[in-house]
């Protein structure tokens, strides 16, 4: 019973805050505990609402969908080594010239 009163109190405060500041306040339910996610960025609010409208899903689902998709992309992203490996292999496949790469060689590249 106390949990319910606390939850109702959080909702009222979130609504009041939204009206006072003009910012969006999203309240997410996790089990029996209410958690507020306060979006203070107009672009973020517009993007979440746009995604929710296009998908015809609630705001909470739109946030979860967007975050899930971004986390999946991060997990699938290749490491720097994996991205540079083809370049490394191309360079390693070239034959050696046998020329010494000393200070005079590098200075000659810059006409020094």
TrEMBL record:
<dbReference type="InterPro" id="IPR011660">
    <property type="entry name" value="VapB-like"/>
</dbReference>
<dbReference type="Pfam" id="PF07704">
    <property type="entry name" value="PSK_trans_fac"/>
</dbReference>
<protein>
    <recommendedName>
        <fullName>Transcription factor</fullName>
    </recommendedName>
</protein>
